[in-house]
Structures are given as C-alpha cells and as structure tokens.
Amino acid sequence: MKTLAFINQKGGVGKTTVCVNLARALSLKGFKVLVVDFDPQANASSGLGIRVKKEQSIYQAIVEGDPTPFIKQPFPELYLLPSSIDLVGLEIELVGYSKREYVLKELLEKGNYNHQPIKSFFDFIFIDSPPSLGLITVNILTASEGVVIPLQCEYYALEGLSLLVRTIKGIKKSLNPNLVLFGLVLTMYDSRNRLSHEIAEEAEKHFKWIIFKTKIPRSVKVSEAQSFGKPVLDYDRQNRVSLAFQDLALEFLSRIKEREGLG
Questions:
Q1: What is the pLDDT of residue 263?
Q2: Contact (CB, 8 A) for 119 and 32
Q3: Considering just the CA atoms, what is the radius of gyration of the chain in Å?
Q4: What is the Cα 43 distance to its own chain's centre?
C-alpha cells in the first residue's frame, strides 16, 4: 500500500498534523514520502514552510496535466505537491469534466519525478484532504488505496465518524474497489482527562480492527511548530508529541508489512 488519504469531514481534529508529522517521521527513517496537499486551506503546505500562488500549486498541475514541475522538497526525503486558496474553485470546475472523480488519480499516475513514475519514485504518497465530503474528497478517495482517519478525543468528532465510514464504503462500492480503511488515529489525547479515556474506549469498542495503539497527545508544541513552518519533529524532536509520531511511524510500518504479507 502506497497512497493513503488522511480524511475527516470535521475540521480541527488534527488531520493535517497527523499527515505532515507521520510523513516526516517516515522520511527520517529514510523513506521517500510525497505529501499531496489537496485542501484549499493549504495547511499542509504552510506546515512544511511552503506558501505558493495558484501558478505554482496543484491547481496548475491539474490544468497542465503534469505535477512534476510543482513538486517541492522542503526536508530531506520529504516532498510536497503544494496547494493554494485557488483550489477552492475546483469543485465547480470539475462538474464539467467527464471523469471528474478521477482527476487526481490520473494526475498522480501520469506524473514522473527524477525520471521515474511518481508511484515508483516515492515509497509513500500521503494526501491531505479538506474538512468536507465534496468532489475534492471524492477525488482523494478514488486516488487512494487506504484511508487514515484522525479522530479528536471529543464526542462531536465521534458522532460524525459513522457518516465518514459510510462515505468511504460508498466510494469503495461505486468508484474504487481497492479502497480500504487502513487506520484510525486518536489525536489531542489527554491522559488526565476523563473524556479522552471515554472517547478512546468508545472508539476501541467500534473500530478495534483499525485503531492505532499510539495516541497523539495534546500539546502547544504542535501550534508552535506550525507557526515556524516545521513539523513538530523538527521543532522539538524530544517532545512527547514528536515521540508519539515516531511510535506511530513504527506501528504504521508494521501494519504495512502485515498487509503486504512481509512481516
């Protein structure tokens, strides 16, 4: 499994934080990881220290049909296909496309990097999504093999999870039969908070088959790192959040090996 979508239709759950920092943790282990920022808010891009205009973003890559000129490398082994606010109009523009659900999939399959097909050059492709279930998200799910759901430890986040799972199953049935629910990551976990424990127990009860054991704790270091345009692992490598992402990377790799029959 190479291409994974990071999705939750609820905003503020730590989706981009998980996508960016798990990618960075894997890159620190020597894996080549491409983060595709397909969210008009472009938080994954700014979180990696990259801010671009429309003519330098994934929007222009779609217009030209080639992502190669737009891929940046903000950190060793970590690459980015950045987004911009201009992507917000793409939902409307895609309505006129004959294969509107497959635009992102075709872009990633056609592209080359370093004289190799994108999917051959990179070990993993992580796609960050907007907090919605519109046509952009449908494109992300159609282009992906697996889905990672970051889940904030609060009740409202848990309530919306069943709708998201139904959407993923619908995409699997109608557009992408290879799509699987790969994992669920609990974010903003506070071990001193009773609510965090209750949400973790409830998630474990209903999603035991995909939930990661590693929980990402709440920490102000995450916001501080974002303000500097860095993953938290580069801002403070020994912080408890950084250590959690390093543990998550090990668990992620172990699950990948299990799925591919290599473990």
A1: 42
A2: no
A3: 17
A4: 11
Dihedral sign computed on CA atoms, order 30, 52, 137, 220: positive
pLDDT at res. 191: 66
Contact 166, 173 (CB under 8 A): no
The answer to whether residue 60 scores a pLDDT higher than 70 is yes
Strands 146-152 and 180-187, bridge-based pairing = parallel
- Residue in 33, 31, 16 with CA at minimum distance from that of residue 79: 33
- Cβ–Cβ under 8 Å, residues 222 and 13: no
* Rounded Cα gap, residues 3 and 75, in angstroms: 20
Q: Can you name the CATH fold of 3-252?
A: Rossmann fold (3.40.50)
What's the token pair of residue 88?
């917000």
Residue with the two structure tokens 């056609």: 110
Tens-place pLDDT, residues 154-213: 666 677 788 888 889 999 999 999 999 999 998 876 766 776 677 777 767 777 778 899
Residue found by looking up tokens 């799972």 in the block: 165
Alpha-carbon gap, residue 89 to 4, rounded angstroms: 24
What confidence category does residue 139 fall into, taking pLDDT thresholds of 50, 70 and 90? Answer: very high
